[in-house]
Amino acid sequence: MNASQVAALRGLLSTTGWPERTREFARALRSSTKRPGGLLLIGPPEDEPWHLAAHLDDESRLNALPEISPTLVRWDPPPSAPPHLRIGLDRLEAARRGEALLVVSEEETPASLLERVDDARRVGATIFALDGDDRELQGLAHEALTVPAGESLVSFDAAQHLVSAAAGESHPRRGLRDRLAGLLDTITGPAVD
Fold first, then answer.
1. What value does the mean pLDDT of the chain take?
2. What's the rounded Cα separation, in Å, for the pair 1 and 23?
3. SS3 of 171, please?
4. Greatest extent of the chain over all pairs of C-alpha atoms, in Å
5. Which helix (H) or strand (E) holds 104?
6. Around Cβ 88, how many Cβ atoms within 10 Å?
7. Nearest to 157 by CA among 102, 104, 103
8. Bridge partners, 101 (sequence order)
9. φ, ψ for residue 96 (rounded to 5)?
10. Which of 5, 33, 82, 173 could serve as 1's disulfide partner, Cβ 3.0–4.6 Å?
11. How far apart are CA 6 and CA 115, in angstroms?
12. What pTM was estimated for this model as a whole?
């Protein structure tokens, strides 16, 4: 999906809340780490998130945002793979404060992955989940974006496109007045004219 297709999808979904939810998730993801290599990306052993990794890497390169270029963590990388595709589970063990772990799992997350996510959280990594309604994974995540299996508006794949595109967008810094107005809108609802 290219940028114009993502823009068209956002237009179609403009009244559903999906563009806003994916932007909020992406904004949090983008601000969770400031150093290149600090965004770790993992999925279940049988469904590594190659697609999202490639799109985040493209957004990183095209928008000069090295902090969103993900480190794809693989379950059993072959020793002959290029260095960036040879990063194994030991990288999760080395996760620390100031880094983020994005878990992408459309199906129920295996217990072995949940244990590793919990370990990364305990040492201070910020946990993000893009999931298909996995309550256990959501319970470990600081931020979660859920695409339920029965969702008729957005597929799991489309949500990944929306997140990666939003992660590459420039977000102007909001002043104190704008942030307070946003907080009041959240608490009380938007003003009605």
1. 86
2. 17
3. coil
4. 63
5. strand 100-105
6. 13
7. 104
8. 40, 127
9. -150, 175
10. 5
11. 34
12. 0.82
| C-beta atoms surrounding 183 within 10 Å | 10
Are 159 and 19 within 8 A, CB to CB? no
Q: What are the tens digits of pLDDT across the range 23-75?
A: 999 999 998 888 888 999 999 999 999 999 999 999 999 989 999 999 999 99
Structure tokens at 158: 């489309």
Domains and CATH numbers, the chain: 3-188 (3.40.50.10490)
Q: How confident is the model at residue 8 (pLDDT cuts 50, 70, 90)?
A: confident
- List the structure tokens of 102: 């994005």
SS3 call for 143 = strand
